[in-house]
Design goal:
By secondary structure, the chain is of the alpha/beta class. It folds into two domains: 120 residues, Response regulator (Rossmann fold, 3-Layer(aba) Sandwich), CATH 3.40.50; 154 residues, no CATH class. A five-stranded parallel beta sheet has the order 2-1-3-4-5, with helices on both faces.
């Protein structure tokens, strides 16, 4: 594995280099003190598998740098001494694999790198298998498989709902309908501001009820759908808080908790459950737009990477 380090602290870069080399995790192919001038094309040319990048830097910060890394094929690990939930959430929304807090903990860094390496190797294996299968299939069979992949959206969504602990929840059907709308209108889904919740629910319910439905019926169903989705998200937060209490290193907890939720909310619920196991019904702050946005992006990633029904 080839690493590239971006941090304005020389000591941090030196520490990361020493950990990577001492543990034989790969080689540090390059480093710089700021994100200014770093491009996805450069990283790809250098065959960088994993980019370590600091959040706060004097000229160009980590989030701004990541936004400008168009086309970068590797994975990103962000390091920072800032524990602001909004910034952590934004980092995960931009595709960061892990958000590691400073001061650097050697064991944590080694664990995170190994997990990311495993993910990279798994993705390469899947791609190799796909390439091999496609080369063996006749053209007509390839077309048929491609058509099947287009119909696998609901299967992918149900797989994700199962991962999130809400596959049988009342709001699951609403989330699948929302996913269907976002996939059918990807121009809106990739709007810099993402569609508003109002737009998402209006379009989804109008599609469900049909053009002949009255405005009163549409509004009534929108409110009911919003309530079901909110309850489903709360149920998922409690699910991951329980997972985290049982095993903080649980792969699903590590992968989904901070990506789909404001992690401070999950942590707060963990503290509540630790004090009182019956606190599952206590009020929870819900970021519905973030959840829906990540639900769409993760479903799209799964379909792109595996190209088969889940």
């Amino acid at each position: 594995m080839r690493f590239f380090l971006v941090d304005d602290d020389d000591a941090i870069r030196l520490t990361l280099t020493k950990i990577i080399e001492d543990e034989d995790l790969g080689e540090v192919a390059g480093e710089q003190a700021d994100g200014d001038g770093l491009t996805g094309a450069f990283l790809n040319m250098q065959k960088i598998d994993i980019l370590f990048i600091d959040l706060l830097m004097p000229i160009k910060d980590g989030l701004e740098t990541i936004r400008d890394l168009a086309g970068y094929n590797g994975k990103v690990i962000m390091i920072s001494q800032v524990e602001t939930k909004e910034l952590i959430g934004e980092a995960y929304a931009l595709g960061v694999e892990y958000y590691v807090m400073k001061p650097i903990n050697r064991i944590e860094i080694i664990t995170v790198i190994r997990k990311v390496k495993e993910r990279i190797q798994l993705e390469k294996s899947i791609q190799t298998i796909k390439t091999s299968l496609n080369s063996l299939l006749p053209a007509e069979e390839s077309d048929r498989r491609a058509a099947q992949s287009e119909t696998s959206l609901i299967d992918t969504g149900e797989y994700l709902l199962a991962e999130l602990g809400i596959v049988g929840h009342n709001g699951a059907k609403d989330l699948l309908d929302i996913l269907s709308f976002l996939f059918s209108d990807e121009e809106a889904a990739f709007d810099p501001n993402f569609p508003s919740l109002k737009t998402i629910f209006e379009k989804t319910i109008q599609k469900r009820l049909g053009e002949s439905a009255s405005a009163q019926a549409v509004n009534r169903e929108i409110k009911a759908s919003e309530q079901r989705v909110r309850r489903a998200i709360i149920h998922s937060i409690v699910h991951f808080a329980s997972l985290g209490l049982t095993d903080y290193a649980n792969p699903k907890f590590e992968f989904y908790a901070a990506k789909f939720f404001d992690f401070m909310t999950v942590r707060q619920k963990m503290m509540e459950l630790q004090k009182d196991p019956n606190a599952a019904s206590a009020p929870v702050k819900v970021n519905m737009k973030k959840f829906i946005q990540m639900f769409f992006f993760e479903a799209k990633r799964l379909r792109t990477e595996t190209n088969h029904p889940y």
